[in-house]
Queue: 3 jobs
Job 1
Amino acid sequence: MEIIKHDININFVGRRKLALIFSLLLIVAGMVSLIIKGGPDYGIDFSGGTLIQIKFAEATNAVEIKKALKDMELKGLVVQKFDEDSLEFLLRAQDTSSELEGLGQKIGAHLQTSYGEGAVEIRRVEMVGPQVGKDLRKKGLMAIVFAMVGVLIYVTIRFEFRFAVGAIVALIHDVLITLGVFSLFNKEIDLPIIAAFLAIVGYSLNDTIIVYDRIRENSGSKNKEEFPVIVNSSINETLSRTILTSGTTLLVVLALFLFGGGVIHNFAFALLIGIGVGTYSSIFVASPVLLVWDDLKARRHAAGEKNS
């Protein structure tokens, strides 16, 4: 199936400077947000503490819940609605592991006193010690780093080192923008989000490899043409496939985001942003890096001839 004519010739290469400015604005906005907030907003998995999901029989709000739990003096208590249309709330507390035992039951008892017997149902209790959270955070970061190194080795073996550099730059670009968007929208980073980041790395790489494969193929059959022309024509030739693949994937992820419920909401949100940015980067980041590499190589060669 082809939804775009095979002979289309959009000047993607000619717009690479505008794309660079756009990418830098997104990355800088995200980084500024992270700096202002003192880093990512880590979930219970990484920061340690307890998370309790509670369902109420009648409508209430975070202020009333905090008022009901005021006597417990819970450290760092955060109350947020689980889903806009539900009566469920998530409670997060930063108490140490020694204080977590039986905390769910104690909170339930306090809420029963304020809301009445049978008006509160404890749906879920998760507890992570601070040391375990720190260890998980380190392992999550290392998983992303090892994935990047694996990509560098794989693309170098399959293509050339310059292609591997382009792929890595595009992947770092995708992860930084997704992380920045999470900070801007006050989303938490937990283990499912790390899994989403790894999925983004895989998806973005797949898109980039398709374009790179066509560039290598056209470099052999159209070697009389200038390299920027080859890169641009390769992007255009794979554009139909890129739009179809990314479009259908985004529809599935969008359905998860809208109808999947609060448990996977942030995971679907990360994929939604990551897949969109990954598709963009395979066109406007990974391929233009090859042109920058080619220009630098030509300048070094020209400088070498001049000196000799």
Note: The chain has two domains: 13-37+132-307, 49-128.
Job 2
Amino acid sequence: MPVVAITGASSGLGAHLAEEMARRGHSLGLVARRVDQLEAVRARVAAHGVPVAVAPADVTDPAATKAAFAALEAELGPIDVLVANAGVLGPMRDLRHLDLDSIRRTFEINVFGAIHAVDAVLPGMLDRDSGHLVVISSVAANRGLPKSAPYSASKAAISIFWEGLRVDLHRTGITCTTVHPGFVETAMTAKNDFPMPFLMNADRAARLMADAIEAKRRTLTYPWQMRWLERLMKVAPPVVFDHVMRSVDKR
């Protein structure tokens, strides 16, 4: 079975996806900053009887990211599937005093963290003319959402980057998949203080992502209600979009 490497694997969607891929028989390479939590996920994944390796690293550090993936490949063999999942919300609440460090950190993790992971595995994939690059973006990539300008912008940036990669790699054996989740029950979304329509169980979300990865789909948006909202968001005139978002923000 293919070797699947997942960043941000110590919790949330990354951890749930790791367990789901293990249930399907894939070998797993797990990357995250939090060593204790990473080891806990390793134990749960290993219980499914598949090879698993962990490599602690902060994906905002390109050298550390390359070293982590090199360590995974030394133990498991070449990475067949990269899932660039590491991400943060980075809300923006005070317009008078922008938290520039938080905004910069949001882009470093959500955008450059994914790019650093690609940089670590893509040369080998090109040499083998085989591989699969997956990024976990968000439905927020489609428009600027209330109190989420940095997050929406960072997810838009990485979605467009991945789309460009897909186009550039079309003559190779490398596939690109962009996942746009809606709201999923994780520790990250538990901090949200606003309504989260169509909130999905994390295990269900992991199964949908695993299906899309195995099918090598170009894109996935879930839950299905969000696919329709996503389409509406893309075509809504600014005056309509602004009115709806102001109503949501008041709630």
Note: The chain has a mean pLDDT of 88.
Job 3
Amino acid sequence: MPDTTNKTFSKNNSHKLIYLAIIAMMIAIEAIFCFTPLGSIPIGPLVATLAMLPVCMTGVMLGVRAGTVMGFVAGLFSFIVWTFMPPSFMAIAFTPFYKVELGNVTFGGNWWSLVICFVPRILVGTLSGLVYKAIAGKTDKQALKITAAALAGIAGSVINTVGVLGGIALFMHREFSEIYAMSEFGATTVAAVIGATILTNAIPEAVVSGIVTPAAVPIRGLIDKKL
């Protein structure tokens, strides 16, 4: 009777190595997108950020759990950027450790900032994995897999936008309203800024994510063959 123990052990080790290698690669890409200008691409007058792409692609390639882990990593990198390298006063929405002074008033983030920073990013990976699994399932049809990945990418991008902007509107409306009233934005309302953000960032990001995320499909095919 052939001994299958070593074969099973070898297969499990191969599984873990491939899994860890892909996770490490996606974390490295996430770091590049978060900590360098390569994470933003101009589309005419608009700008799309790429930070959610590795998260969406991980959810498609490795499933819900891995996508959720990558979402946490994205949230952690975002927290680091907004805490130590804040590009604008918007940092108060993502970290409780940043303060901005306008006149004699100091505005700062609170513990809800951590919810806004982490929860939407985590949900990106979770939802991307769930959408791909629900649509593609165990199908062998390549067209359906590509469609599922595109929808997973769009869904991941949208949930991040909804989570962040919704969190700001729910938990930090007063702070942002006062900042806008006291700064060069004048009487601009939080609702107006949210609307402008959707037009200038959210839509192009969702489009880019829907186009690029299907690139994960052939990689997933190679993983399945190896495993």
Note: The chain has eight helices and four strands.
